[in-house]
């Protein structure tokens, strides 16, 4: 099956060869072809170039005059499998309580865990698939999804099985992350070691047996998991072949970045609070820093210092953090806009961070993230726009007209 897009006003993020990720000044370069064609065959990108060398073949042709095509967004950090919502806590925050105070009063992650534990697997699947369908329509073509709202053996496995079902039933690329260490459950309040042992001795072996996860995560934060805990769970994960992707430096910086680097984690995520030596230590490593601007927006906390990080030569990826507590939104278009507006990233940097670098942060850089021959035809076809700067500029509006996954248009 072939599809030929013709007269594309501008084809964005074209890369001849496969790139691992982009750092520093490279992030400000977004290669494009104006007045381009793009040929898709059997769900993969077969060829592309300027219209003057467009092949003459008999196949389905789509005239993209006035519109642009870019690779789908790569959202490397979400918690989109969850039960119910937490809009009551949202109102409490408006009235003056902080995120930490809400958690201390039994809200927060433990509140979501309580809801999830009493939700059946089918109901959880049903609620989660609606969120997945929604983000696909918003242009996301690859997504990482975490467990971490179960916090019991059964409920964590239930979450991971739901992620597996989503993976089997939808054409979007999905990676699963085990985040048993998201919060210490109430029953283990005075016995955190007992909880960690349960995860290591009882949950990880089943995850391996049923092939339920690609990565392991931990919320390394005061009141959640310490450096020691982080070390312990990352070590255990690596025994089961799970590379780390960790929550660090959201509220406090106390060495989580360095602990992650010791374990060669694939990504360090959040980074709202960054010390100079956190930035320096990340340089020339294979670990991708990931910023989550929608979380900063929603909680009213600082944004990751993207400008400082990129100007120091670091790579950066952008992701949503879609979850019921700190980011009830999976909209990568909003993330890209907010990165430009609040973090002073250029449109080129933001688009690179949300495509190529996001793909790397899921170990999907060979499959998605750029218009490259042989990669999946996971694409966004925009509405008629004057320039790609319009995508972040028109915040809150959607420039996405159609989405394609593996070359198939996904109708809403
Ligand atoms: O990434 N920071 C930790 N976990 C989530 C929020 C969890 C919640 O409030 O439910 C996050 O922001
Ligand atoms: Fe998160």
Descriptive overview:
The chain is built from 15 helices and 16 strands. The protein has 412 residues and is an alpha/beta fold. It has two domains: 2-71 and 371-409, Urease, subunit C, domain 1, CATH 2.30.40.10; 73-360, Alpha-Beta Barrel (TIM Barrel), CATH 3.20.20. Strands 1, 2, 3, 4, 5, 14, 15 and 16 form an eight-stranded mixed sheet that branches. Strands 6-7-8-9-10-11-12-13 form an eight-stranded parallel sheet. A hairpin with a 2-residue loop joins strand 2 and strand 3 (44-50). Helix 4 packs across helix 5. The chain is globular. Bound molecules: N-(iminomethyl)-L-glutamic acid and fe (iii) ion. Residues 108-109, 112, 219, 247, 250, 295, 321, 323-326 line the site of N-(iminomethyl)-L-glutamic acid.
Summarize the entry for a quick read:
This protein is an alpha/beta fold.
Please outline the helices and strands.
Elements lengths: L1 E11 L19 E10 L2 E7 L9 E4 L3 E5 L1 E3 L11 H8 L4 H6 L4 H9 L3 H17 L2 E7 L6 H17 L3 E9 L10 H18 L5 E4 L8 H13 L3 E6 L7 H7 L4 E4 L5 H7 L5 E4 L1 H7 L6 H6 L5 E2 L13 H12 L3 H8 L1 H5 L18 E6 L5 H4 L6 E6 L2 E2 L3
Parallel strand pairs: 1-4, 1-5, 6-7, 7-8, 8-9, 9-10, 10-11, 11-12, 12-13
Antiparallel strand pairs: 1-2, 2-3, 5-14, 14-15, 15-16
The structure holds N-(iminomethyl)-L-glutamic acid and fe (iii) ion.
